[in-house]
């Protein structure tokens, strides 16, 4: 097979693996790993060293630099403090305990030198959102634990990468030199990394904030500058580039009034492509004989990591918190290792082997063994364990609402007042800000993006209402969440004949979701009614006031939206089926201002009589 065909095959299989992971709701790392092992050591179709030759090392280096920069863009220090003591402890105390204990165990069990043992310990502290999020969606633990796991993965991803880079830099600096000289070289590398990373971030932030680049060049310019800074840092101080770009991303993430949403979305897309291809290539370089060579000591080490190190980190981190015993048991079991560990370990192994560290070759199969075992074992057993402990989330009856305009905020408030969980998503910051002022949970950005997949909190939410004016995004969001919630739990407003034609061109499944509140109910109609003073009103249905009486009283002046039954289950008025609320139910409807005035007049007349 020609080199071009192999490259094309890697690209196609990367997308296929990502699609398969999305369909079966498992971390993408698993099918990518299997694909790489099949192409490489099993079938012998792909030999990355022969395919890339001298370009393999630069390709892996640049790819890891982009991945670390993109990951560090998600680290906002205020979020570490803002997600509870347990999360803060896990990404500080827990991370350090994991690093130190695993390093010591690796030295004594595997017989590696302290440098390689420390590197392995630093590499496997990271869980990461790409492996945690699919597991949380599959397991659906209670809200408190889901949030702890989610934010631990998001925050520890860049912090763990920074720890691994620092350990690696110290190892490189200490090679064949006295300890004092090693400290000096390490200090130089760290100083350069932080200084150049901070300076480049401030300069790039200034350029983006003042519009020095046209909009269409911002993403490309950012990527080019990141790679340029990476190369410059390496040229000034050997192997300092990874630290520099990691610091650069962290500084930009914490720069106030710097809108990074579009750049972050672009970097996420690029990272998905790079990670997918990189992981297949790295897995194809493995040899099954390397796993055999690890022997029984690796199995013992792995068992201790699973059943002792993680529980130790969780129990120490939980001191002073209100977590129960069973909460800590589940947190102790869910800690799959992810993409960062695999990519960084392979890069460091390549560099260290070139520098004469023969033991470095064993790091990659050992890291991959940890990744495979934690992802597979915990994916299969986490949900049964959560069920056994009674920590599964109750049925998800809440709503994700796309659109945070004035009308949808009123709808969301009426649902929240009835105890129905809601979360508003919008790409308009002003709408999100006003929703926050109304104490409504929000997500700022495109809810169908990769960033949303890693960051949006869907705990308690199992249905989607598309109620936004964004005609281009509405179909994408609707189809995206059909695969998350199921097609019958996604509802959108009919946008009129123009939207009907557009939806018919897209998919029949999307057109069927345009059933919210009635066939003639459009976003424009709802927004107009609300602008004219219509209010969301809840009306009980009783034996003496049936739904027929309700319809007779209000007629076309009321637009029924929801009905809450006597078991507190919420039903939606749609065109799919006729909904007739019974006695004991409550109808939630948009009542026109004219209707309310008439009601007041009738009430006053009745009181006078």
Structure overview:
- This protein has helices spanning 3-24, 29-42, 48-52, 56-72, 77-81, 84-110, 114-123, 129-139, 143-173, 179-209, 218-236, 241-253, 261-284, 288-317, 325-333, 339-354, 363-389, 406-417, 429-437, 450-455, 473-485, 497-506, 508-512, 523-531, 547-554, 593-608; strands at 398-402, 422-426, 442-444, 461-466, 490-492, 535-540, 558-564, 570-572, 586-591.
- The protein is of the alpha/beta class and 609 residues long.
- The chain has 2 domains: 3-253 and 260-389, Na+/H+ antiporter like fold (Up-down Bundle); 398-591, Rossmann fold (3-Layer(aba) Sandwich).
- Strands 3-2-1-4-5 form a 5-stranded parallel sheet, sandwiched between helices.
- Helix 4 packs antiparallel against helix 13.
- The longest helix has 31 residues, at 143-173.
- It is elongated, with a radius of gyration of 28 Å.
- Residues 497-505 and 600-609 have low confidence and may be disordered.
- It is a multi-pass membrane protein.
- Its main location: membrane.
- It is found in: Cell membrane.
Low-pLDDT runs: 497-505, 600-609
Distance between the termini: 93 Å
Order of strands in the sheet with the most strands? Answer: 3-2-1-4-5
Sheet-strand content, in percent, reads 5-15%
User: What is the CATH level 1 assignment of the largest domain?
Assistant: Mainly Alpha
Q: Find the structural class using helix and strand composition.
A: alpha/beta
* Rg measurement, Å: 28 Å
Keywords: Antiport, Cell membrane, Ion transport, Membrane, Transmembrane, Transmembrane helix, Transport
GO molecular function: antiporter activity
Membrane topology: Multi-pass membrane protein
Subcellular location: Cell membrane
